[in-house]
Amino acid sequence: MKGSVAFILVFVALSQATFVQQFEKLNRARNNFDGKIWAVVVAGSNGYYNYRHQADTCHAYQVLRNHGIPDEQIVVMMYDDVANSEENPTPGILINHPNGPDVYKGVPKDYTGKDVTPENFLNVLTGNSRAMLGTGSGKVIKSGPNDHVFVYFADHGAPGLIAFPTSELYKNDLNNAIETMHQRKRYKQLVLYVEACESGSMFDNLLKTDINVFATTAANPSESSYACYFDEKRKTYLGDRYSVSWLEDSDNENIEMETLHKQYEVTKKKTNTSHVMQYGDTTISHEIVGFFQGEKPSALNNAPLPPIYDDVPSPDVPIHILQRKIELATSHDDKLKYKVLLEKEQEIRRRISWTVKTIAFHSTEGDKELTELTTLSKPSLNDMECYKAAVQEFDNTCFELDDFEYGYRQIFVLGNLCDAGIPVEKIMSSIRIICH
Length: 436
Ligand SMILES: *[C@@H]1O[C@H](CO)[C@@H](O)[C@H](O)[C@H]1NC(C)=O
Hints:
Blueprint: H1 2-31, E1 37-43, H2 51-66, E2 74-77, H3 118-125, H4 129-132, E3 148-154, E4 157-158, E5 161-163, E6 168-170, H5 171-183, E7 189-195, E8 213-217, E9 226-231, E10 236-240, H6 241-252, H7 260-270, E11 277-280, H8 290-293, E12 312-313, H9 317-328, H10 332-363, H11 368-374, H12 384-397, H13 412-419, H14 424-435
Parallel strand pairs: 1-2, 1-3, 3-7, 7-8
Antiparallel strand pairs: 4-5, 5-6, 8-11, 9-10, 9-12
Helix pairs in contact: 2-6, 6-7, 9-10, 10-14, 12-14
The chain binds 2-acetamido-2-deoxy-beta-D-glucopyranose.
Catalytic activity: Hydrolysis of proteins and small molecule substrates at -Asn-|-Xaa- bonds
Subunit structure: Homodimer before autocatalytic removal of the propeptide. Monomer after autocatalytic processing. May interact with integrins.
Organism: Clavelina lepadiformis
């Protein structure tokens, strides 16, 4: 009798252990992930008024780090001119919410300043360490067939491109790089989160659904993304709506359990100013967030930050900052100074719109109707080479896009001229004539 009780107890204990093992095995098998996680996080802008992009990016780094991804597997690209800008009242500190912690501390400076380029980004992503030798930290993603890759990007965008500090990354170059990575078996699954205006246009009708890639974007192919969290002390926006939505979700949720799909739904719900989109292989979104942002439970135990809704379209940030500065100015001289700057900004915007429209008028040999059409809808960008060349010429000859970001709001007209079948040489010569 005693013997059989002992036998039953041992049996129960054994089967429980087996059950746990089986359960863990099942869990592993379901997700089938025992590789490494690699990440690239990029802020594509510079300038203090673009504070938010570097704050978002630093925050993304902190999420990955808090969840146990070692620095060797994270590459950070940011201009790094904001934390120690003389405009920053808290030197060496960046925050991503008015009540949030410093996100700048400990961020590796892999590639800063002029090293933040689309070419370097693609070399880092595709693991081309030879190309990066002698540049920045030289760190690249050394991912293999069992590994996961996570990419986060925050900056300005326009149809078919995302901006870097002094040039642009075009949608076909990004998608080609990803396809090459797939062919070379450089990942098991790859996830991209992209914050930019018209960010959906980077993947729409382009990102393949059978190469194990899942992407979400802050906006659909034809709308702005939105900045948020204006800070009166720092006199700038601290975050972008889509970005802070997923970042705060990763800070507060148990990402070892939450799926990418759930995070997408939460982010989509919180981002009520633009349309958060998903592209690629959506079956990947049933995977656990932690398999891309770090599997270790975060040691942080902060209460969720209070919600603040003060979203403004990203392209209008310079205007809103100046308007707030006028409101907040304590002296008459300061008020006047900011009013003059605001008037100047509005004048530049009028000049840029006028210039683009005049280029369209000239390219179409004075066809008023066609000119009007090219200024109305977003382009489909069937001829990327034409678009690229026209944007480049506009950047060289008319307005440098990194200094005149409003240009990103207008270059869609150049895309429409290409779509209308106007030869690229004609568009380029019109640009040179108008902007000479
Ligand atoms: C977005 O949601 C917040 C919180 O529910 C709300 O306060 C805000 O007015 C909403 N904004 C828009 C544009 O609907």
